[in-house]
């Protein structure tokens, strides 16, 4: 009798709670494959780890045998804290807390991925800490001075000056969040151009954008390509902001980039661990 043995990769999903430097508990899902390599996936504005792009990217990494962690920023999803408009720097520090947590568990952070606002956050993280070899920016906005009228109304600056805040309601009239002068200033003083210039040559960056994105124009992706030193650009024809009908192509593009990085990383010197002081308007 011949005995045939099959080795099956056991994938486990479990909740992990990590405390940020403000004492708030960040809730996340670890897709555990047993791999030492770990990719961290970050959601966008007023979103969560349960949105389709984040779930699908983590599942695709699972199939590659790479562990993934998707989590909610403070004030979003199941994480503690209050939702804040702007908040780019603070979310970058949430990501820092997550990276440090897994490094203490002897994980190798192979890449950080962010969708929409999360794309800005992972670039901000890379520019400050310079300790991750691969960054994926999916549909991030280059010019943060744009895109506010669609959410806040054309007269938002006048109303903010009059009342000191703007309350935002959804289409059904339900209150969603408050925009204060401080939180608006946080967005307007986050200079993505300066962020791009601070990212080191050793860090490889992929920007993916949908040609039919109505929230963030695809032209923004071209701006990232101009200023990030080691950059690759991929426009997905016909895709919207959420990649509703292009999930397969999105995951394929991201995985191809990560495979290239894993191969290149074997011959790449370790990145120096630096904490850059922000220049310009940062």
UniProtKB/TrEMBL annotation:
SUPFAM superfamilies: alpha/beta-Hydrolases (SSF53474). Pfam families: Hydrolase_4. Coiled coil: none annotated. Residues 35-161 form the Serine aminopeptidase S33 domain. InterPro entries: AB_hydrolase_fold (IPR029058), Hydrolase_4 (IPR022742). This is Serine aminopeptidase S33 domain-containing protein. It comes from Populus trichocarpa.
């Amino acid at each position: 009798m011949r005995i045939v043995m099959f080795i099956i990769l056991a994938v486990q999903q479990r909740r992990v709670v990590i405390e940020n430097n403000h004492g708030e508990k960040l809730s996340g899902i670890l897709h555990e494959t047993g791999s030492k390599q770990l990719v961290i996936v970050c959601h966008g504005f007023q979103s969560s780890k349960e949105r389709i792009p984040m779930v699908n990217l983590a599942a695709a990494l699972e199939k590659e045998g790479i562990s993934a962690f998707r989590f909610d920023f403070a004030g979003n999803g199941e994480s503690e804290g209050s939702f804040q408009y702007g908040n780019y720097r603070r979310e970058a520090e949430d990501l820092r807390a997550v990276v440090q947590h897994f490094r203490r568990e002897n994980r190798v952070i192979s890449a950080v991925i962010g969708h929409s606002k999360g794309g800005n956050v992972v670039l901000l993280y890379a520019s400050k800490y310079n300790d991750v070899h691969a960054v994926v920016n999916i549909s991030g906005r280059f010019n943060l001075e744009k895109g506010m009228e669609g959410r806040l109304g054309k007269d938002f600056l006048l109303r903010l000056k009059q009342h000191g805040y703007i309350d935002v309601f959804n289409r059904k009239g339900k209150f969603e969040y408050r925009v204060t002068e401080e939180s608006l200033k946080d967005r307007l003083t986050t200079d993505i151009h300066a962020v791009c210039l601070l990212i080191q040559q050793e860090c490889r960056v992929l920007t993916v954008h949908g040609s039919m994105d109505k929230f963030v124009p695809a032209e923004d992706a071209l701006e990232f390509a101009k200023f990030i030193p080691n950059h690759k650009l991929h426009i997905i024809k016909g895709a919207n902001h959420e990649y509703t009908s292009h999930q397969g192509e999105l995951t394929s593009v991201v995985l191809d980039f990560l495979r290239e990085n894993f191969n290149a990383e074997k011959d790449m010197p370790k990145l120096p661990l630096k904490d850059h002081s922000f220049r310009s308007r940062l």
